[in-house]
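Tutorial handout. Part one gives the primary structure; part two gives the three-dimensional structure as tokens.
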Amino acid sequence: MTDFAAWSRLIQARTETVLAALLPGGAIAPEQLHDAMRYATLGGGKRVRPMLAHAAGEAMGADPARVDRAAAAVELIHVYSLTHDDLPCMDDDDLRRGKPTCHVAYDEATALLVGDALQSLAFEALAHPDAATDAATQVEMLCLLARAAGSRGMAGGQAVDLAATGRTPDLAELEFMHIHKTGALIQAAVLLGALATGALEAATRERLERYARCIGLAFQVMDDVLDAEFDTATLGKTAGKDAAQGKATYLSLMTVKEARTYSHELLNDAIEAIGPLGERGLRLAQIARFIVERSY
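Part two.
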């Protein structure tokens, strides 16, 4: 079995190839929209969500070619959310993945349409016959992704985030926000990858959901820590932006040391959750450690 660094590069390259094939070419009308979609999606990002989908698929014995569509669908939703989050009406940022944000490189209207189009393309990708073993599971996968992206998931979490700007929520409110804003799509990535083999046993699904909830929170904890400790060049996005805008972060409730300790507690809980998977859960465990130990 290849080491994690080599495996992650393999999944990143695989995801890039799949996304490039799914996205309309820049020479297809409307050219600017399609060019902007490719600009926002290709050539950057850690691809954590596709890695999670493939790791969960591997744990369940799925064909990687079948997982490709689920992995791409989740990443397309993620990129759409970043494109919209960067708009002046949201976080008003001008740097993403080490290059100008979509609305800076093009314009605000184009960036808005890019997000809309990427969201639609995600569901088109997941609706393809190759994405699931049977129709019932495919409908479940589509519903799962829709819920994760909507008002009870990512979009709802963003609404809570915007409403909390300028004040300090308690830990329960902060975690409610991040379970939805970040965690919902991370959980979707894990479950979609696992569902590529068909329906899941209730106990297995519960273990995967617990794992995903823990790493989703750990991901955000570490994002807040890295935002405080590293510069813009390292992060590939504007450092200190959340603090400058009065956004609620873990560091508004705890010190950096406490936050790092908490992230390791979440890591341990995640590893414990997938313990019954044994060696099949190795990649999931490696991703969890990467999330907590990363420097970007």
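Part three, for discussion. Residues 202-229 form the longest helix (28 residues). The domain at 4-293 is CATH 1.10.600.10 (Farnesyl Diphosphate Synthase).
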